[in-house]
Fold these 2 entries.
Entry 1:
Amino acid sequence: MDSDEEDDFEWSVENEEEFWEELDDIVTAPSETHEEIDDVLRRFLGFTTRFKEAYLQSEYDVARCCYQLLDAPLSKQNQDYVRRQILYCLLQEDEVDTLHLAAALLLFDGRSNETAFEMMQTEGAFPRLVELIRAKRDDDIGLHRLLLELLFEMSRIQKLSREDLTTVDDAFILYLFQLIEELSDDADDPYHYPIIRVLLVLNEQYMCLANATLSPSEENGPVTNRILKLLSMHGPSYMTFGENLILLLNRESQLGPQLLILKLLYLLFTTPSTYEYFYTNDLHVLVDVIIRNLLDLDPGNPDSGLAPDQDGQRALRHTYLRVLCPLLKNTQLAHEGNHYKRDEVRKLLFLLVNRSSAHFAAVDETIIRLVIRCKQIGWLREEDDEQDELIEKKLAEVAPSESIVAKKLLGMSIGEAAESSLSVSEVSAKVTKEKPSVPAPRRRRQGSKPVGNGDKAHVNGTSGSDTLKVPPQQSMAVGEDISRDETRSPFSDDNAET
């Protein structure tokens, strides 16, 4: 759209009522041809940016303005064309108010019709969003937040290309981490969440790409997971991110966000250089959250046996257990004197496989294998433990159903190297309409040796205080890129020995 003609229009608006009446006249003007549609869109953007400071000050006002265009016959009857013109505006314009309206229109449009986000991917919007997020924060905080939400939403529903992910460099990830640190004085600031969600979805995209088959043309090797790499190198400088991950998990009730958080936690707890990234106090909170959620999650109808996991509850229980094992084994919780809630954890593991309790449904083999894996942790073991004998008995009872259960739940083929026969998006579509596209993480490959990072400065957190302080900047022991092998496949060990 050419905006040169905007100055041809003069509006006289005396109050808010006149503003909304004029806006309605603009979006309902004749729009039979592409030229007329372009004319309406030029007038819409010219009018709204002209009076944005006066009448579009709140998020509600901006949303109302956008839906007035999106719900108009002009957009309903020419959806693809209008959407593409707005997208081109985002790709080409540099004026802050125009970008604000274009980003808001695409975000609201995409939330009701994901075709908008798919078009953004096709037209190469990802690098443009990364560029704008770097540059526009000081110009307009509201625009910056919209751009973050738009980047998250378009990355959540589809796999990004290798070329897209290579536009994200270390400086961009560190910039996002630093924004979280700057906002650390206000844990309830809603600005935290869009930044954290972008980092979470980028981590997922890195893992999806790492587990994809490399084509012959990809001569440069795998793309580095920069989230994991930079937390390995500079974790003590960005502790607020870790605190907020656990805070969000504690508050979250929806499947998709929980899986996104748990997947990153799994990587952190199975990467030696980030074993002790979190404060000990935060790990205590995380153990409490996992115990509570594993007890609260509904395993399904006991009468149906291993019924299809329609709402993702079983998959989520598996994921919590897969995170619990390295959390207890590899972090400072494994240190002498730090064995937090040992008895409660043992009771939880017993309850997860005890069918005599009416609270739990029939147990599948995955649950029992994961429980056995946790029970093998040194500080949880007891000599001549009757619970261990019962758990092994339960495992023997359900073992024949493993392949059937896996295929039913996630389309997995256990016999073929434990790789998924479904894409990540398809797996998530089976369990939630939100499409978090996050499969459940698995244990790291056997043979990897746990190595402590030697950094004790941030292990114990604060003493007797609810406020956690960020320590002075340090560098962790590992400075090299995280390799393809370090971004572990979530389907790598379903049939591994426990």
Entry 2:
Amino acid sequence: MNNVKCSILDQLPRRRTRIIQCVYVVGFMDLFGVSMIIPLLSHHVKDLGASPTVAGLVGTWDDVDLGASPTVAGLVGTWDDVDLGASPTVAGLVGSTYGILQLFSSTIVGSWSDVVGRRYSLLTCLLLSALGYGLLGMSTSITLFVLARIPVGLFKHSLSICRALLSDLVSEAERPLVMGHFNAASSVGFILGPVVGGYLTEHEGGFYTSSFTCSAIFLVNAGLVWMLPWSEALTPPTDANSNSSISKASCHSNHIAVTEQNCYHRNVNNHTTGPVKAAKGPAAPGKNRQSWSWDQDWGQVSLFQPAWRQLSSVGAKIRTVASSDMWDLFLMRLFMAVSIMLYYSNFSLAMEERFLLKPKTTGYLISYSSTLGALAGFLVGPVTRLYRNDMASLLLHSTVLTCGLILLYAAAPTVWHVVLSSTFIAISTTIGRTCITDLELQRGGARASGTLIGAGQSVTAVGRVLAPLLSGLAQEFSPCGPPSLGVGLAMAAVALLTVRMPKWDSRGKGEKA
């Protein structure tokens, strides 16, 4: 495997670069639309006649992909007041529908995108999410509200598929840079969305207007994805233009198509069966052209193949990931996800009880940290280059820093210490989250990127279930209880990394040899 480090702008054809930029727009609009709805969910459920507890449970972080800003994602669950006198049956139904569906569907839909291709899976998720948010705008009862959450819970995985698509488009060396920019764009959308949603709510029928606007945004995203130059950007180039482009990127090989495969998809880990064979030699008008047809969208089975064949391929990919030696990365992701959620779980209440801060002042601090979290996405590329793409070391150092900052917040004697911890934790968590995703893709292989990213989201969903329970228990003892428990989990993550990293290094050296 060639160790080629080519600049994205030189290595990728112009149309591929255009796809990357359009994916950034899709990520921005996705969370912009979703964040218009989240602060309004509890108020809408109250208007439908539900108890305040149901409303509070609906307004949790279910719709939030923690690939965006961890600050705003973690604080979604603090926007609503909870009254403890509700029907537990209805509360459990409404509050858990989305989370449970996401827990089981993340890996399945991600694997399905590996099987049928990014284009059609992304279009399906966007269109069905648009349907779900449109139904949400027409919900006039709790039953309709729950039904509207089902398509969104099953298919709101557009951001995960976008990350898998970006992983397919760029080389391993450039992947952290591109992922960081995508996370930054998504986070900016999440910050701006509530402003527009709040403005629309001031008018009559504001929730319904926001829901239909969100649905329209997803339809626009689907149209944008449909119009991308997929076939022209993703088909193998001809000998004439590939010679010039590869020469420009300083990539030399006896087989032009194989070299391009190494530049764009370096981390295939022996999973390149179909496209590589088709790439050797000129493209014949018959069989080879058909072999490349699925590679245009990175799919292995046609969307129109029987459902049993698609399910069989999905199951095979999931079994491969489940039986792989990646438990340490997924456990690391779980520890840090719960730790960060515990940090933010009672942030507003702790600021009021510990430092007598008014909600308005706490809101300013939250906005400050959220903005830093979004901007930190642009630091990922330079930092990874500083570490020479040693993602394991970077993950260890960012985890140690995050652990120290949570400890500083838990023991903070003044507000200024909280400001200091909020400043740097937004940066450390953004870098750490990108590192762990990149390590999962490195070890799992690019051909299963959708499955791997989906599995990571499922692990995070488990954290969403555990964090509120642990936070409630810890808060019984002290307002500092949740972040203190978060420190313990972060220390466990550091210990796990310290033990497992030498094995990753030895395995990597063995593969190179």
